User: Fold these one by one.
Assistant:
Number 1:
Amino acid sequence: MVQPKIIKLVDGEKGNIIKITDLQLDGVMRRRLLDLGFIKGAQVEVVRKSPLGDPIAFRVSQTTIALRKEESSKIEGELISNGE
Amino acid sequence: MGNEYRIALAGNPNTGKSTLFNALTGLRQHTGNWAGKTVSLAQGSVEYKNKTFQFIDLPGTYSLFSNSKDEEVARNYIVFEKPDVTLVVLDATSLERNFNLALQVLEMTKNVIICINLIDIAEKQGIEIKERLLTNRLGVPVIKISARNKIGFPLLLDTIDRIVTGAIECQPLVLQYPDEIEEKIRQIEPHVRAIVGDHVSARWVALRLLDGDESLLDEINRLITLKGAS
C-alpha cells in the first residue's frame, strides 16, 4: 500500500488534482475559504500558475478561484493525480 | 391593504436571481456577469390572487457570515427585516457549492423556498434533481425553475401564496453540531432568547456568538438602542 503523498496547494503543479485534508487557517479567512468550497474532502485541480508562481488558480466545485500563497501554503491535501 | 407580502431573493452570484426577479416583476433590473453586480436592493411587485408580492433582490453572495458589505446587507435583511418568504435561488448545475448558502438561510429563518434555477441546462447536462426528496429532507418547498424560459413560475407563485396564507408550514431542517457545540448552544440560547425574543432565531444567534461574530452583536445593539429611543 503506497502512502498517499501529502502536499500543500501552493506546491501543486498545473494539472494536479489534490484532495484537501487540512486547512491551517482561522477566523474570517478560514470561513471565506470554506464558503468558496475549500473544504476537507473536496478535490481541487491546479488550473494555472502565474509567471512568478503567485497567485495560483484552482478549480473547486466547478468554479475557478485564485489564491495567494499566504492562503494556498496553509491548505494541505493528498495528491490524487498529477494530470498525466 | 393588509395583503401585501415581502419576498426576498437570495442566492450565490450568477445563479439567475436578477433574471428571475426581472421575469417575475417585468422590471429591467440590469443583470451582468461580474462580481457584486447587485449592489443596492431592487424592488418590484407582482399581483397574485388579490395579493401583492413585493420582491426584493438581495446581493448575490456565497455566504451570509458577513465577510463583506454585500453579505451584511443580505443577512441583515433576512434576519432583521424578516421578509414573509425568503426565496433561495440555486444553480442546478452547481448544487454542492450553492447549498452552503441555502443551509445558512434555513438556520436563520423559517419561511424559505428553495428555487433550483437553470433546470433546463442541468437536464441537458444529464443532471437529474429529485426535488421531492430534497423537500422531505430540508423541510421546505423545493421547486425546479428556469428563470430565462419562465418554467415553473405558476408553481412558484402558488407555493409563495400557500406559505403566506399559512396553507403550508415550513419546518426547516435543524442542523446538528457536535455534542460540545450543542451543549454550549443549550447554555447560551435561553439568555439570547431573553434579549431577542421570538423576533430572531435564538439558536442562530447563539451559533453566531459562539463563532465570535461581532458585526452581528453590533447590529443587535444598534437595533435595541433604536427601539429604546423610539
Number 2:
Amino acid sequence: MLPVGCTLKGEQHKMQPILEARNLTKVFYRGSLLARNRIVAVDNVSFQLQRGEVFTLAGESGCGKTTVARMILGFEQPTAGEIIYEKNGETWHHRVWFTQRIQAVFQNPFETFNPLRKVEGYLFETVRGYQLADKRQAALQLINSKLEAVGLSYGEVEGRYPSEFSGGQLQRISIARALLVDPSLLIADEPVSMVDASIRMSIVNLFKRLRDELNMGILYITHDLATAYYLGGRIAVMFRGNTMEMGSVQDVLMHPRHPYTQLLRESIPEPDPAKKWRGRISIAETEQEEYLRVGCKFAGRCPKVMEICKRQAPETVCVDEVYVKCHLYSETRSIEEVSCVQG
Amino acid sequence: MQDGDVVLRTDNLRAHYVLDIPGGQKVVRAVDGVSLQIRRNEIYGIAGESGCGKTTLMKTLYAAINRPLRLVSGSVLYAKDGQELDVYALRKRELRGLRWRYMAYVPQGAMSIFNPVMKIKETYRDFLSSHLKGKTAAEMFEIAKDHIDKLGLPISILEAYPHQLSGGMRQRVAIALAALLRPSVIFADEPTTALDVVVQRGVVQLLKDIQADLHNTIILVTHDMGIHANVTDRLAIMYAGRIIEEAPTVEIFRNPLHPYTQFLINSLPQFGDAGQRVSAPGQPPSLADLPSGCAFHPRCPKAMPICRELRPDTIVIGEHRAACWLHAERGTAQDAAYS
C-alpha cells in the first residue's frame, strides 16, 4: 500500500491515468501437494500510467515484471488487487473494447509470428478482426501508413515469411500491427532484448516517437536500465515481486536510494573502460530462497542489512518524491540521517 | 610485439558453411579472412552482433568444426612449449590431449550442459576421471572442493543437482569446470548473455579471478560492449565474417576508426546523458549473400565509390588495426606488418 499524501513528479498535473494498478498481488504455488511453497510473484504493486508517458517496470528475471504485464493483459488473474483502465471500471472481460485500447509487443519477434505464415496475413487479419476497413484498398492504405510509421513499407513486407526478416524488422512489424487499432497504451515486454545491437536504438527511438507524436502511453518492461534512462519518464524497480523504488528515472537511476537499486545501477557494465566495476558482489544460489524469505527479500545480499530487515518487511515510504521500500528510510529516521548513511 | 608473447596466431583464416541446395551449392562465408595474434596473459574480446560469424570463429579456433562447416584456407597455430602447433595438422588423439588441458571452451548457454540427474560433484568426478588418470574418488573430490573453494563459490553446490542452482550459479560452475585443468587458453562464447546484470557481474568477476590466477589467455565473445569495456584488454570488432577493427580496448572506445564501430559505441545510451542516439541504418547483411567491396558499405554514411568495388585491406596504425578505405593511407598494409 502506498503512503497517502505523497505525489510523484508529473503525477499531480495530469488528471486521468489510462491505466492504474492497485495493490496488485499474484500468488503461485510450487512443489507437491504435501510440500507446497507459496511464492508471492507480485506483492502489492501499485502504479499509474498516463497518456504520453513511458512508465518502466525494471528488474531482473524472476522479479515479477512479466507477471504484472500478463495480469494487465488478462492472461493471468490477479490473486488480489485491481487493474483499472481509463477509470471507468472496465475490466479485461470486454475483450474488443480492451484490445482496441491496449496492445502488446513481446520479447521474441521470432516467436510472435508463425514461421509458416506470411507476415502480411497478421496485418490483414487485425484489420478484418476490428473492421478497420471495408475494402482491400483501404486496408492496404491503413497498413502501409502504420508500416511507414515504424520505418518500413508494404512493398518490403508483401509476400514474405518471418524467416526472411531480421529480428529488428520483425519487431517493427509487430509494433506496426499493434498500432493498427490506434491504441492508447502499448505494453512492451522486453522489446529490444532479442534485437541486434546495431539497430536496437532504432526501436527505442521509435517508442520515443510514438510517445511524443501519437501521445501514446507506453509500459516498458525491461532489465536494461540504460534504455529506460534514455526513454525518460517514470520507473518502478522490482525485486522478487516487490516494488523497491519508484519515481522519475532521473531520481531513481541517477541517485538511487534503495540498496538494491544502487547495486543494480552499479552492476550495469558501462561502455566506457574508465568506469570499470570496483568491489565484489555475492549472488543468490537459488531464486526460491529469496522469494521465501521473511522480512525484506533483499536482506540476504544487502550490504547495509540491519537486524530488523531479517524479521519484518519494510513499509513503502516517500522520500523526496520517490517511493522507497527500505528500513533505512522508515519513519524512525529523519531525512538527514538517511543522507549520512548514503554518503 | 614479441613473437614469444603470441599464444594463438591465425593467418587469413576462412571457414565457410557449404550447403547443398537444389541446383547447386550455397556458401555461407561465416569466417572470411581473419588474421589474429592473441597474446599470453590477456583477455581478448571479440564483439559483433548476432550472425556476424563470431561463434563460427570460436569453433574454428578451437578446431571443433564439422560439416557443413569447412576450413577453406589459413591455419590456426598455437604456441605450446616453445613450438608452434597447427591444430588442423594434428591427429585426433593429439587434439584430444590438448582439449581442456591446454585449451578449454565454454559454449554458449553453458548453464545447460549439466546432466540433470547427476549431482555437481558427480559431474566433477566424471570430468576428472576422464582427464586425470589414477586418482581415487576421494582425491578427486578433494581437487573439486579445493577448486570450488578457491574460486569463491559455495562448497554446498557440489551436493546439489543442477536444477537446484540458479542460472547464474550454473554458468559459473560451467566456467569453473573449464578452468579446472589450468588451461592456457579459455574460449568463452557469450558467457553473460541471458543473465541478469548483477549475475553478469558475478560471472565476469569469476572470469577475471581465473585469469589473474592462471595468467592465461581468455578469449571472450559477446555482443555487449559494456562487458567488453569492463573486462577485456584488447578488443576486436567483427562484421560479416571479418575483423574490421582491433585495438587495445581503451583505444577502441576513445578513438574508434571504423564507421561501424563508431555506430556501435555511439549508439549506446549512457547514464546522465539522455541525448539522441542513432543506430546504424539498414540491417546486418546475410553471410550467404555479402555486398560487394566492403560489406558495410550499404549501411555506411561515409561510403565512397571505392567501397562498393574493392574490399579494404586491414591496415596497421600503431597498435590499432582497421579495415576501412577511410584510413587506407594512414598505415601500412597488414600483410607487410604481420609476416
